Amino acid sequence: MYFELSRPYFLMLFSFRYAQIIIGFCWFLIAMAIYPSIWVAPSDFQQGENYRIIYVHVPAARMSLLIYIAMAISSVLFLLTKHPLFQLFSKTSAKIGALFTLFTLITGGFWGKPMWGTFWVWDARLTSVLILFFIYLGALCFQEFSANVASIFICIGPINIPIIKFSVNWWNTLHQPSSISQFGTSIHISMPIPILLISTSFFFLTGISFIFEIRRIILSFLGFSVKNQINLQSNNRKQVFFYTNNKSSKST
Length: 252
Known about the structure:
Number of helices: 8
Shape: flat
Helix content: over 70%
Strand content: under 5%
Number of strands: 2
Structural class: mainly alpha
Distance between the termini: 63 Å
């Protein structure tokens, strides 16, 4: 079963059959989240309407962490098995994770500006997320030179994940602590629903982005292989043609 799922044929077949259905489901979730996030959820008594940026900021931040965890697992599997799909998964994860992390930093700046008076402070949470962004960029750079070195580098990065998660508890930071925990929520019950819907849509959109990017890479490899095969056959025909002409000229 493992070898069947790891074949490029299975990925190409799955993306052809179900990609449009998943994309439509993601847009449905986003549409379902727009109404409660704008018209149902009440305003915050301190931040006013500006707080509504959390409906995209928080899901993006969660995806940036989740993608890195998945990328680290994929890198470990690549080091153990040397299967090329794990390396492609890690490379694609670095691209998508860097975009989510950059989006998190930008939306966080716009969210913090009215409260902090500036778009950026060297806060523990913000700084650790910025380090995560540089780790993603470093992984992309190492991927261009060596997949093994990139995988080892990625496996070191998870040290930063708990720092991001618990920085608001370990240090005295400007960034507010988590409003949703295992003990409940400190915000109105209507607020977590859009966050959950958009987080789910981001999760599926990320999965589709993975599939499309890996599909593009596989098709580029296949196209390169076919082109080389055509060139090889063309060269062989030329050699046969020249050999036949030389042989006929010598016989005359």
